[in-house]
Every structure is written in C-alpha cells, then in structure tokens.
C-alpha cells in the first residue's frame, strides 16, 4: 500500500514538473518568437488595447491568405501573422482570426504542400489557440484534431535526408501544437485519448532527438493526455 502511494506521488510530482516546464516554455515562446515579431528597431510596440488595429491587420492578412493567385508560401506566412495577431490581441482578436482558420484547416489537408509550408500554418494555429478557450473550441469544430493526428500517424518514405528531416520537423511541430491545445482543456484530452494509435506514435516521437527544442513535446503531450496512467 505504501509503495502504491509512493508511486502515485512520484507520478503527480512528475506531471507537475511537466506542466511547470510547459508554462515556462510557452512564456519563452512569447518572449522570443511572438514579441520579437511586433517589436522592431525604431518602432513602438503595438498597444494590446488597440483591438481595432489588430482587426484591420487581420482583415488585410486574411485577404492575402484567401488569395489563391499568391504564392502558397506568402499565403502561409500571412496565416502565421494572423495567429500572432490573435495571440497578442486576446479573445476579441482571436474571434476575428477565426474567420480565416477554416482556410488554414483546408490548406493543411493538401497532401502536396511542402512540410515547411504546413509548419507555418501550424504556427498560426498554435498562436491562435494559446490559452484561448474560444479558439480551442473553434479549432475543434474545424476538425483540426483529425488533421493533426494524421500528421503523427502518417508515414513518409524518401531517400533524401533533407526531406526526411523536414517531415520529422512537421511531426515535432504537430506535437507542440497539440500540447498548446490540450493544456487545461479536458475536451481535447478526452478526444485524443480515444485515438488508440496515438499512444504508440507519441512514444516513438518521444524517443527521438529533440535537441534545440525547449522541451520534448511528444513526452509532454503523452503526459497531458494521461497515457502514462494506462
């Protein structure tokens, strides 16, 4: 009985450590990636209260995203910037951005898109859903979970090392996005737990080299979902 209690305590301590590190890494993501996007030399930081500014920028970027005559990389970059604006603008900006996330979901399902383009789109989703229950709920209704699961469960054959590395990087980003969505969201935990193959996929991903990443997000997601309890 004592060993059982000790085991439970160790598991909870380990889970707490993962949650604490996840929060720290997300804050690092804000300071280094997001904040750096808006703060440039000789420019003032955009006041978060100016929601109307965020809306106007989102509309302009949304038009670029929806413009099929533009290069796909430029459209994907616009999607990423929409996500960043949604992140800094809070819930109101997140609602403005939601109008264009359907197109992001559609593009992510295009099997011909290169991994680097899909990663830009995933970065958009990560920013959009960061600590935003409305955006997380909206993303779920747009069927982002099946799309992301397909990235993790999919296989890729290539003799080119660069292509293999690009495909693995896409999976790494998928783990990160799912971690952002799942943190403090029980509905995501429940739905992801129903994907039986996901457990094995995350175990495989967790065993890979995550050097250069702030955290092994496959392992983080594994614990967030609760697969370690089975």
TrEMBL record:
Pfam families: ARMH2. InterPro entries: ARM-type_fold, ARMH2. This is Armadillo like helical domain containing 2. It comes from Cebus imitator (Panamanian white-faced capuchin). The lineage of its organism: Eukaryota, Metazoa, Chordata, Craniata, Vertebrata.
